[in-house]
Design brief:
Helix content: over 70%
Radius of gyration: 17 Å
Number of strands: 0
Distance between the termini: 20 Å
Shape: elongated
Structural class: mainly alpha
Number of helices: 4
Largest sheet: none
Order of helices and strands: HHHH
């Protein structure tokens, strides 16, 4: 297993845990705000984005673990890493005060950085998988 595959597997396990936590926290915030009756439209959108991002991270992690074990299947995780990257950008934009966010964009910014790293590593594993498939032909 190459270093890129090992790193992809480690990042995938990290994404899996963070995805579960994100989806859980988003759902908790949505239900708690609804129960309290003081939830705004911006908060609803932010909670839904956090839930969607958590689910996307879980799916990306599952495909990442699969691709780390078999680099020939890395095309799917590469596509999901782009989706995860797009969701991270949306989450970062929604945290900006200009768009009604709280201004606490440091967690969103760090999530974007991790998503960029994940995309780069998935791209490397994808290239390794393409190289391996050319060797077996």
């Amino acid at each position: 297993m190459s270093n890129a595959c090992k790193l992809l597997k480690i990042l995938s396990f990290f994404f899996f845990v963070v995805g579960i936590l994100s989806a859980g926290m988003g759902a908790t915030a949505l239900f708690a705000g609804s129960a309290a009756g003081d939830i705004t439209g911006t908060m609803i959108v932010s909670c839904i984005v956090v839930i969607v991002l958590g689910v996307v991270e879980i799916v990306t992690a599952v495909f990442g673990i699969r691709a780390a074990n078999n680099p020939a299947k890395a095309g799917v995780v590469w596509i999901w890493s782009i989706v995860c990257l797009a969701c991270s950008v949306i989450s970062l934009l929604l945290s900006l005060p200009l768009l009604g966010g709280t201004g606490s964009s440091i967690p969103d910014f760090s999530g974007l950085i991790v998503s960029i790293i994940y995309f780069v590593v998935a791209n490397r594993v994808k290239k390794e998988g393409m190289d391996l498939s050319l060797i077996h032909i």
